[in-house]
């Protein structure tokens, strides 16, 4: 009989060793799988937080202040653009007037050049006729040099007028081009700017509405994830309960060699059988709780897949509003403002060139006035030199008659210079007055009108860039949420991955225990302390309830009530525990 009991005990020890090995394996797998599952859920929470932050930045990119400041710059520039046609038309008339003065001087200049050509011919005649007269050789050289000087001055004057006329013709072309650009581009550009500006608020409102929907869904998913994180405590609970079963066996082993050493082998065997029955009952209850909670986790996970799919749909709607299909208001506005900036910059560049011509015209007019005075001085010098020659020739009689005739011709033709010179002088005075009036009007169109528009363009590009980055970030994070959630469905299917492991532990623990209840009431005093030590190990109310059906507990061996599996701890507290 004793040998049979010993043999049975040896067999139970072998089965127990197998059970403990399986419990250790289950413990390790539980710890890893639930830690991994928690990490996945927390990473999804972090992505959702980033998603909500991205949405806040996205909707904040185009606030009312930005809109009003941007459109204020556009409207101010459009208003100033509207004043420029009248200014440019006035300037065009000024260029026409200046050019007409230049053309009017051409005839007088040609006449002066023709007179200078005749004078140069007479100078050569003086040189020839005075060849035999020593007193007139120096005079002939001097008069020829003076005439050449006058001819050079007239040619220089003619070139200045010609160059100025060419500049004025270019300036007229500049001005004509500006006026054409105004008529072709400015009205359309201003209309486009106004139209697109009116659509910004509508566009922003539509994006903000969709973004708020996405945020609501994201927060809903966060709430559901919090619930799942709370439910993940089943992994820690199951792991602890396995540890408690292992501790139970260890405490029994210590009891057998300690205070229970004096008991008979039969009594020890009966107590060991009760321990095995208690372990089987604890394991069965642990498995039932584990399966129930794992199914709840899987059900809750499946519930918010639809939410993440809706996030993707809304994300696609927001992304579509940023595509190239004509719906991107900011891009259209940016394009319109950029075109206006380019136009205005071209207008100002052309205006600057025209302004330079106007300034140059005024300076050239002063130079021409000085030049015509030089020509008139030369004319006077030639006249008096010829008159002096006539006086000297009259004293020489017939010998000086030929030089006297040529000198008289020099005086006549030198006098003819006065008429075209006076005409040029009158035109120059007219030119000077026109150029002065022209220059006084330059301030009307010479300001920097590109500044406000460039600032508006910079603001629009900044907003557009932030919006593009926000939409891109939203697209990436929305996809990441959906991918992570979809992957988490299989990652968090703990029952499929660990159910067999837990059931194997249940089977082994059941195979160790007798199907019949063992009465150890006669040993109550002997096992009371053992029962109390085992009882103190528990952290779950279910464990204690089961314990009372198998082992007595010594007086004073009770501890504070432990939480039940569905404990009163809030989801928020559990979520904080999971995070920290």
Question: Could you describe the 3D structure shown?
Answer:
- By secondary structure, the chain is mostly helical.
- The chain folds into 2 domains: 2-64 and 204-326 and 468-579, no CATH class; 77-179 and 339-451, Up-down Bundle (Ferritin), CATH 1.20.1260.
- The protein is 86% helix and 0% strand.
- It has 15 helices and no strands.
- It has helices at 2-60, 64-129, 134-184, 186-231, 233-257, 265-303, 305-320, 329-396, 401-416, 418-440, 450-491, 494-512, 524-537, 541-548, 571-579.
- The longest helix is centred in the middle third of the chain and has 68 residues, at 329-396.
- The radius of gyration is 55 Å and the shape is rod-shaped.
- The two termini are 58 Å apart.
- Residues 1-7, 323-327, 442-446 and 556-580 have low confidence and may be disordered.
List keywords for this structure.
86% helix, 2 domains, 580 residues, mainly alpha, disordered N terminus, single chain, Ferritin
Number of domains: 2
Portion of residues in beta strands equals under 5%
Kindly report the average pLDDT value. 75
Q: What separation lies between the terminal Cα atoms? A: 58 Å
Structural class: mainly alpha
CA-based gyration radius: 55 Å
Number of strands: 0
Largest sheet: none
């Amino acid at each position: 009989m004793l040998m049979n009991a010993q043999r049975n005990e040896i067999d139970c020890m072998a089965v127990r060793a197998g059970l403990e090995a399986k419990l250790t394996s289950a413990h390790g797998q539980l710890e890893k799988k639930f830690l991994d599952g928690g990490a996945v859920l927390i990473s999804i929470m972090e992505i959702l937080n980033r998603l909500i932050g991205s949405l806040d930045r996205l909707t904040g990119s185009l606030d009312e202040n930005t809109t009003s400041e941007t459109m204020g710059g556009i409207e101010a520039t459009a208003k100033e653009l509207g004043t420029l046609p009248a200014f440019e038309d006035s300037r065009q008339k000024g260029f026409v007037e200046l050019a007409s003065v230049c053309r009017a001087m051409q005839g007088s200049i040609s006449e002066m050049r023709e007179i200078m050509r005749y004078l140069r011919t007479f100078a050569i005649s003086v040189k020839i006729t005075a060849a035999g007269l020593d007193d007139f050789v120096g005079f002939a050289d001097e008069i020829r040099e003076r005439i050449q000087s006058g001819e050079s001055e007239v040619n220089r004057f003619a070139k200045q007028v010609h160059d100025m006329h060419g500049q004025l013709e270019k300036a007229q072309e500049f001005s004509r081009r500006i006026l054409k650009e105004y008529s072709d581009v400015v009205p359309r550009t201003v209309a486009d700017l106004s139209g697109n500006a009116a659509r910004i608020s509508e566009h922003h409102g539509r994006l903000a509405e969709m973004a708020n929907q996405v945020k609501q869904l994201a927060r809903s998913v966060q709430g559901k994830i919090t619930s799942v994180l709370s439910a993940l405590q089943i992994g820690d609970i199951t792991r602890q309960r396995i540890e408690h079963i292992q501790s139970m066996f260890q405490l029994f082993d210590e009891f057998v060699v300690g205070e229970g050493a004096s008991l008979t082998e039969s009594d020890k065997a009966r107590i060991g059988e009760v321990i095995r029955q208690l372990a089987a009952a604890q394991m069965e209850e642990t498995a039932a709780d584990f399966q129930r909670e794992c199914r709840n986790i899987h059900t809750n996970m499946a519930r918010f897949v639809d939410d993440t799919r809706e996030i993707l749909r809304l994300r696609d709607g927001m992304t579509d509003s940023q595509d190239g299909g004509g719906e991107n208001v900011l891009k259209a506005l940016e394009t319109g403002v950029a075109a206006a900036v380019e136009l205005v910059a071209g207008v100002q560049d052309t205006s600057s060139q025209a302004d330079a011509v106007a300034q140059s015209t005024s300076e050239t007019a002063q130079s021409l006035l000085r030049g015509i005075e030089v020509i008139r001085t030369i004319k006077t010098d030639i006249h008096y030199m010829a008159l002096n020659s006539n006086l000297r020739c009259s004293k020489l009689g017939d010998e000086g008659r030929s030089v006297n005739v040529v000198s008289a011709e020099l005086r006549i033709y030198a006098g003819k210079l006065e008429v075209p010179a006076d005409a040029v002088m009158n035109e120059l005075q007219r030119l000077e007055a026109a150029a002065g009036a022209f220059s006084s009007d330059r301030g009307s169109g010479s300001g920097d009108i590109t500044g406000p528009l460039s600032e508006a363009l910079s603001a629009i590009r900044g907003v557009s860039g932030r919006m593009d980055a926000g939409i891109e970030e939203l697209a990436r994070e929305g996809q990441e949420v959906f991918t992570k959630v979809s992957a988490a469905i299989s990652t968090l299917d703990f029952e499929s991955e660990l159910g067999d492991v837990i059931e194997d532990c249940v089977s082994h623990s059941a195979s160790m225990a007798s199907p019949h209840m063992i009465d150890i009431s006669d040993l109550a005093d002997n096992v009371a302390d053992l029962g109390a030590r085992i009882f103190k190990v528990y952290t779950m109310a279910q464990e204690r309830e089961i314990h009372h059906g198998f082992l007595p507990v010594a007086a004073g061996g009770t501890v504070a009530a432990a939480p039940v599996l569905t404990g009163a701890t809030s989801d928020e507290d559990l979520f904080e525990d999971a995070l920290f």
